[in-house]
Structure formats: structure tokens, C-alpha cells
């Protein structure tokens, strides 16, 4: 089974990906959080750092682009090609208000004519320059039935892979995925198809696979993989339990690396807090400790609590 790590802006940074890959290594492909190219600026120095090959060595990384302007996509694509990338991903899923208001992410899904023209342009570039382009999409903007027309549009292009998160923009990340529309995708999408959404455990994987009547493969894991970094290994049958020694190692590497590149201290603690909002599901019996950890304002206090939680 092939497992892809989803992009989670602010969470799956190059620091996270590298540490994760060294410690767990059960992921076949990592997708970087989106780059947002602008006029004459295919990527900011901060975005470039995140996908710089030297910061991603040993990792099979696919950079992602968020734009509704084909010329911006192509400029960023050329820059990525010069860095050695052979595949890029188009973000058609981001539900954020500011992104959608600019017609990008899932905000591009209800502009069908503009989307088709955009895809015409970027796939011409793809074919001319030998750059593969995959797409990560939702079912639609306001109505899941938009998906039927979107599939027809996608089917007209040589999409490297279509990653489908079966929700619409207004669902954000809440509620049950709209499974019946992924069934439609299985039946009608012509390019390789990847399932993404709400796989938090092996039981979830089994349930989704049994609903669809196929062993989903590849799958893309987002929040489930951050919450339980052993999940990819569990799904591949490499381990049966969450490895807390590895989690401690991951925690320590991230904490020390973020201390090196971030300041002031409170920003490092915010970063760690965000990670703990995912990890806390693994420590349900340590609810009170976690609450205190999420409020820690000084390194010493944080370290003492984190160490107590992570030492079984
Ligand atoms: C904090 C956060 C940041 C995200 N950033 C991105 C992003 O940069 N690009 C993208 O395509 N999806 C992004 N997503 C969506 C995830 O990649 C994924 O599609 C979503 O979480 C559903 O998968 P899951 O249920 O396995 O988490 C983000 C989601 C979250 C929660």
C-alpha cells in the first residue's frame, strides 16, 4: 500500500517532514503545504526554504501550488523544475475565506470555464516541459453535485494523480466525508485516484475500504498521521502499536529545531501547542497535564510537563 502525507500548512513543515521521515519512514510521498505565487514572485524566501532540496533530502516531495492564474503557476513550475522537481500539485481544495475570495483553492471550483482554461494552459506547459501535474480537490464549492462536471473537466487532461477530499468548501474539515461521491470518482475518474479524508485509525481505513468495496491504495493521510505518527506503519502492517519512544524522539527533535529557528520563545511554544492539539488524543488519561502544557509560557515549565506526559 502506498501512503502519502498530506500538506498541513504550519504543521508539516520541512522540519516536521524530515524528522518524521528519519524516525518513522513509512510514507511514500510527502506533499508540501502550498506555495502562493504572485506577480514576478514565484515564491517567497520562506516558501523556498520549505521546499529547498537541501532541507528535504531523502524525501520524496511534491510541492504544491495555490493560484488561479496560469502564468503564475507556470512561473512557479519553472522555478521548481530548476530546483529538480518533476511533479507538482495543484491545490483546488483550500477552504479558507481569504483564499476562496480570490478565486483560488476550492474557490476556483465554481468557476468552471476559467478552471478549464487554466488547466488547458498548465497542462500544455506540463506536456511541453515534461513536468507532471497532480491535482488535490474537493467535490465542489457549494454543492457536491458540482463534482460530476469537475470529473468531466479533469478527465480531459493528463492528470498525474487526482487526490479527492470528498467534502465541499463549506464543510471545511467537519462532518462525515461524502463517501457516495468518492464512489462516483472510483467509477468515472480516468487518471490514478487517491482517497483523502478522516482516516485516523486502521479501523477507519477498513471501514472506508469496505464501503467502497476496494482496498483504497494509495491513500493520503493528514490529521490522522500527525495525531498518531505510527499510523502509516500500522496501516502497512509494520507495527501494531503507537511507538511512544519514537513519538518522544519526534517531539524532542521538533522542539529543539524550532528553538533554533524561531523566536521569541513563546512562538516555539505556540508551534508545539499546535502539535499537541493533534497528539493529545494519544494521552486521554493525561487530560489535566495536557491542559497545563497547552498553557505553558516558559520553556522550563513546558519541558517539565512534556517530559512527564511523554515518559510512560
Ligand atoms: C491545519 C491544516 C492545514 C492544511 N494545509 C493544507 C495545504 O497547505 N494544502 C492542502 O492541499 N491541504 C491542506 N490541508 C488539508 C489537508 O491536506 C487534508 O486534505 C485534510 O486535512 C483532510 O485530510 P485528513 O482528514 O486526513 O486530515 C490542511 C488541513 C489542515 C487541518
In words, what does this structure look like?
With 312 residues, the chain is α/β, with parallel strands linked by helices. Helices cover 47% and strands 12% of the residues. The model has no long low-confidence stretch (mean pLDDT 97). β3 (61-65), α3 and β4 (87-92) form a beta-alpha-beta unit. The longest helix is centred in the middle third of the chain and has 18 residues, at 112-129. It has helices spanning 14-23, 45-51, 70-82, 97-101, 112-129, 146-155, 179-188, 202-212, 223-227, 231-235, 244-261, 265-279, 287-295, 299-310, and strands at 3-5, 29-35, 61-65, 87-92, 132-137, 162-164, 193-196, 219-221. It folds into two domains: 3-235, Aldolase class I (TIM Barrel, Alpha-Beta Barrel); 244-310. An eight-stranded parallel beta barrel has the order 1-2-3-4-5-6-7-8, surrounded by four helices.
Keywords:
TIM Barrel; 8 strands; alpha/beta; binds flavin mononucleotide; 14 helices; 2 domains; 8-stranded parallel β-barrel
Helix segment tally? 14
- CATH hierarchy class name of the largest domain: Alpha Beta
Q: What is the string of SSEs from the N terminus onward?
A: EHEHEHEHHEHEHEHEHHHHHH
Instruction: Report the CATH architecture of the largest domain.
Output: Alpha-Beta Barrel
Count of domains: 2
CATH topology type of the largest domain: TIM Barrel
Q: Could you tell me the number of beta strands?
A: 8
Biggest sheet strand order reads 1-2-3-4-5-6-7-8
List cofactors, ions and other ligands: flavin mononucleotide
Amino acid at each position: 500500500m502506498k501512503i502519502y502525507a498530506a500538506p498541513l500548512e504550519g504543521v508539516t513543515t520541512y522540519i516536521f517532514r524530515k524528522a518524521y521521515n528519519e524516525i518513522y519512514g513509512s510514507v511514500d510521498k510527502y506533499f508540501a503545504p502550498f506555495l502562493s505565487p504572485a506577480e514576478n514572485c514565484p515564491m517567497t524566501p520562506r516558501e523556498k526554504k520549505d521546499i529547498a532540496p537541501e532541507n528535504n533530502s531523502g524525501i520524496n516531495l511534491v510541492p504544491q501550488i495555490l493560484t488561479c492564474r496560469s502564468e503564475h503557476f507556470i512561473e512557479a513550475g519553472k522555478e521548481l523544475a530548476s530546483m529538480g522537481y518533476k511533479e507538482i500539485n495543484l491545490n483546488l481544495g483550500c477552504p479558507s475565506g481569504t483564499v476562496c475570495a480570490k478565486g483560488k483553492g476550492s474557490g476556483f471550483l465554481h468557476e468552471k470555464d476559467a478552471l478549464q482554461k487554466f488547466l488547458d494552459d498548465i497542462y500544455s506547459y506540463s506536456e511541453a516541459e515534461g513536468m507532471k501535474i497532480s491535482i488535490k480537490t474537493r467535490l465542489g464549492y457549494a454543492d457536491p453535485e458540482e463534482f460530476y462536471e469537475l470529473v468531466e473537466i479533469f478527465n480531459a487532461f493528463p492528470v498525474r494523480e487526482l487526490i479527492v477530499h470528498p467534502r465541499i468548501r463549506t464543510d471545511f474539515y467537519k462532518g462525515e466525508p461524502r463517501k457516495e461521491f468518492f464512489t462516483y470518482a472510483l467509477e468515472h475518474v480516468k487518471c490514478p485516484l487517491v482517497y483523502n479524508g478522516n482516516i485516523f485509525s486502521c479501523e477507519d481505513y477498513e471501514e472506508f475500504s469496505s464501503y467502497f468495496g476496494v482496498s483504497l491504495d494509495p491513500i493520503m493521510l493528514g490529521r490522522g498521521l500527525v495525531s498518531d505518527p505510527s499510523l502509516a506503519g500500522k496501516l502497512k502492517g509494520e507495527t501494531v502499536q503507537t511507538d511512544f519512544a519514537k513519538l518522544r524522539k519526534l517531539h524532542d527533535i521538533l522542539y529543539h529545531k524550532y528553538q533554533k529557528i524561531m523566536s521569541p520563545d513563546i512562538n516555539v511554544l505556540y508551534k508545539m501547542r499546535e502539535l499537541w492539539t493533534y497528539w493529545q488524543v494519544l494521552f486521554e488519561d493525561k487530560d489535566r497535564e495536557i491542559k497545563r502544557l497547552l498553557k505553558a509560557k516558559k520553556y522550563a515549565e513546558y519541558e517539565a510537563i512534556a517530559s512527564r506526559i511523554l515518559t510512560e
